[in-house]
Amino acid sequence: MLIFSKSPLFSIAFDHPKQSHRKLEYQRRDLMPTIAHRKESPSQTKHDAILQVASGEIWGKAARIGGLFPTVKAYPGVLPANARGINFTTGIDPYPNGTPFEIHWVYPDTPGVLLKTKGGIDFAVISAVVTNLQP
User: Fold this and answer.
1) Number of domains comprising the chain
2) 50 by DSSP, 3-state: which?
3) Mean pLDDT confidence for 106-122
4) Which of 72, 73, 74, 93 could form a disulfide with 105 if both were Cys (CB 3.0 to 4.6 A apart)?
């Protein structure tokens, strides 16, 4: 469920069978957040989800094959029902040359994407409001 108000604030609400009703508010009506998800996988673990909720950040590294730049990768819209993973919203617009099936935020080509290094590996980082659906 997605709800937008007509006031200077707008709201986003997610309904999910495993998650209580969550409501997010943004201070600018003209800021249309991107709504995306990541399914649970070896690169998106339950532990990652806990860190993402706590930090308010989604991280991504360069692809293993042919990846030149660190990239946050996700899928558009909310997580399918009965799937495990995370839903998130971000005010950072995705990289414009994506596909309808994936969303990418590429460092340094996407404005607002930060670069962080951990363990000698560079990561693209976006700020997000994250809902953990990996109980």
Assistant:
1) 1
2) helix
3) 97
4) 72
Q: What angle do CA 32, 34, 38 make, to 5 degrees?
A: 165
Phi, psi of 50 (to 5 degrees): -60, -45
Q: Which tokens hold the place of 131?
A: 């809902």
Average pLDDT over residues 92-104: 91
pTM above 0.85, yes or no: no
Q: Are 51 and 38 a contacting pair, CB within 8 Å?
A: no
What's at 114, amino acid-wise?
A: L
In sequence order, what are the beta bridge partners of 35? Answer: 89
Range of the domain at 71: 10-133
Strand segments (E) across 29-128: 34-39, 57-60, 71-76, 85-90, 103-106, 114-118, 121-127
